[in-house]
Amino acid sequence: MKASRLAVAICSLLFALTATAQTPPAATLTENPVFQKNCAKCHGKTGEGRHFAGPSLVSEKTTSTSADELRDIITNGKHHMPKFAGKLTPEEINTLVQQITASKK
Question: Residues with Cβ < 8 Å from 32, sequence gap 6 or more?
Fold first, then answer.
């Protein structure tokens, strides 16, 4: 009886920890803390790009780029953009890709 109570308590604790550790992703690109910390410096706080820095992430050209290509660019870098493999998790990169493609004008 004691072993089953202990197992239930451990399972409940693990469930509670995983439920609180997962924060829901931000609804939009500009609300995403990962974007604000890693991308806004070059692409602007609104994602519309900065002169002589990163291009717009909300332009038709960027938002119509395939998810695989965007994922590759974020992961491996391109031109002056650094690679974010090892700096961002695959989940963070996927969230950014989804938010970029969802921000079509």
Answer: 25, 26, 95, 96, 99
8 A C-beta contact, residue 38 and residue 75:
no
Q: What is the CATH number of domain 25-102?
A: 1.10.760.10
Distance separating alpha carbons of residues 64 and 42, to the nearest angstrom: 20
- Determine the residue type at 61: K
User: Tens of pLDDT along 72-86?
Assistant: 999 999 999 999 999
| Cα separation, 44 vs 21, whole angstroms | 29
Which of 105, 37, 101, 32 is CA-nearest to residue 71? 101
Average pLDDT over residues 12-21: 52
Name which of 104, 100, 77 is nearest 26 in CA terms: 100
Cα three-residue angle 15-19-22, rounded to 5 degrees:
140
Asked if residue 71 has pLDDT above 60, the reply is yes
